[in-house]
Amino acid sequence: MTPPRDRPAKPYGFRPRPRTQQPPGPMAREGRDHVVLYGWHPVSQALSNAGRHFHRLLATENALARLNEAGVALPIEPEIVRPSAIDRLLGPDAVHQGLYAEAEPLTAPALDAMPDDALLLALDQITDPHNVGAIVRTAAAFGVTAIVTTARHSPNATGVLAKSASGGLEHVPLVIVRNLAEALITLGERGFTRIGLDSDAGTSLDAVGPRRPAVLVLGAEGKGLRQRTTECCDLLVRIDATGAIRSLNVSNAAAITLYALTRSVGTPG
């Protein structure tokens, strides 16, 4: 007798749970239709973003009291849980600070919707979610208009990336493109100065000065910018380090370069 075929898995659908019921499962449930956010800054900033739509919010009593004290409005009824319940979803090493949420991804704007005076970042196959999250946080600090990234060879805006971004995802949108080189060509045709960061570049960052509109292009640590990406840049610049260690983490390099590009032109209000 032929054994029955396995039934296809049912799509994920949110079902409200009683407030006292513990969430099941040993891992956070990430999928195409929702993202996982945890920690004070990622969750509180997301709750304050009218563009976020939530499926689920877990909070400890202390975290909920902190949200109330901060005046954060809750668009969804929270489930009150013990810290160990969130530990079971994320693992014991995740610093969740008593907050865990499942939400829909934010809508990605189109490349042609970027304003004519925009300051953009473009990420060339940076795959480490910690680095990308730190870049998003830095971008939010310097008023970057948006971050251009590809659908492939880039981490999803969820989990560790969102935690590392410390709420920055709610302030700096991600523009998802199919091909980074084509996106840079399009931006160049619109008058954007395309500035690639390269430790071996012949031009120092000090010689560039503030630019708008501009797109700062960052490559992955170790590999740097790909050849095709380099060919699409108007300028290649280096950061002159004077200490014993000459190489910088890509998120630190992004912060230094953004400071140089914005120090006298200000940031959009």
From TrEMBL:
Domain RNA 2-O ribose methyltransferase substrate binding: residue ranges: 36-109
Q: Which InterPro entries match?
A: Alpha/beta_knot_MTases, Ribosomal_eL30-like_sf, rRNA_MeTrfase_TrmH, SpoU_MeTrfase, SpoU_subst-bd, tRNA_m1G_MTases_N
- Could you tell me the keywords of this UniProt record? Methyltransferase, Transferase
Protein's UniProt keywords contain Methyltransferase: yes
What Gene3D superfamilies would the database entry show? 3.30.1330.30, 3.40.1280.10
Q: Which SUPFAM superfamilies match?
A: alpha/beta knot, L30e-like
PANTHER family tied to this protein:
23S RRNA (GUANOSINE-2'-O-)-METHYLTRANSFERASE RLMB (PTHR46429)
Tell me the protein's name. Answer: 23S rRNA (Guanosine(2251)-2'-O)-methyltransferase RlmB
Q: Organism, per UniProt?
A: Methylorubrum rhodesianum
Q: What is the lineage of its organism?
A: Bacteria, Pseudomonadati, Pseudomonadota, Alphaproteobacteria, Hyphomicrobiales
Gene designation: rlmB
